[in-house]
Amino acid sequence: MVQIYLDSANLQEIEEALSWGVISGLTTNPTLMCKEAEPFEFLVKKICALMETNPVSVEVLSTIAEGMVKEARHLANQAPNVVVKIPMGVEGLKAVYRLNQGEEKVSCNVTLVFSVNQALLAARAGAAYVSPFLGRLDDIGWDGVGLVREIIEVFTRQGIDTRIIAASIRHPRHVHEAAAVGAHIATVPFSVLKQMARHPLTDIGVERFLADWDRARRGEEIGR
Ligand code: G3P
User: Is it the case that residue 131 has pLDDT exceeding 90?
Assistant: First the structure.
């Protein structure tokens, strides 16, 4: 079954979303982290504790492999459920490869993926996850869900077990389409999660049931 991750670094949103019982992991990025008031490392530890054993993706800031590896090891030491987010690119691939060597392997989520070939290279280098960005592809007139579908087709045909996270989700339709094409995971902002749970006809339905109940208790006849 497709897993829903929360794409957020906001502690209130995370606690609220967790209470719904639908969240299996969490992704952050530098933009999300820097919006929060808490110091970076405190936030990482606090989020990881709230998420218990569920994976939490935290992104490195370095642009060269050596720096990425160093940051990744530091992040991985903050909590056992940290997954290190590494930006796609040659330096990113080198970092992922190195983080998969030796005794202390670090689980990596290769982010900012915009093509099947990028996803393939990330998987070959050892990524546990790849994150194609649907919304940002749609923004430039391409087909975000189409990219997710193609990556899934290629990974399935090639027997690649790297998990595919549909990211840069902008609206509820992205989520159901990503699930329909077989994404393993969709990472959604809290605003989209709230939209997913609602439908105007559900609200109208609840209002009508309660109104009918009240009318019946007052002895009025219920039409329809
Ligand atoms: O998970 C990646 C996501 O946070 C990026 O979303 O809306 O900034 O493209 P967006």
Answer: yes
Helix H segments across the chain?
11-19, 30-34, 40-50, 65-76, 90-99, 116-125, 134-139, 144-158, 172-180, 190-197, 200-217
Q: Which of 140, 168, 187, 188 to mutate to test the pocket of ligand 1 (most atoms within 8 A of CB)?
A: 168
Tokens of 216: 């019946």
Residue carrying structure tokens 């490869």: 97
Is the pLDDT score of 223 beyond 80? no
The CB of 187 under 6 Å from ligand 1? The reply is yes
Q: Is the pLDDT of residue 65 over 70?
A: yes
Average pLDDT, the chain: 96
Give domain limits for the chain. Answer: 3-199
Nearest CA, atom 1, ligand 1: 167
Q: What is the pLDDT of residue 224?
A: 62
Mean pLDDT, residues 44-58: 98
CATH of 3-199, one of 1.20.120.420, 3.40.50.300, 3.20.20.70, 3.40.50.2000: 3.20.20.70
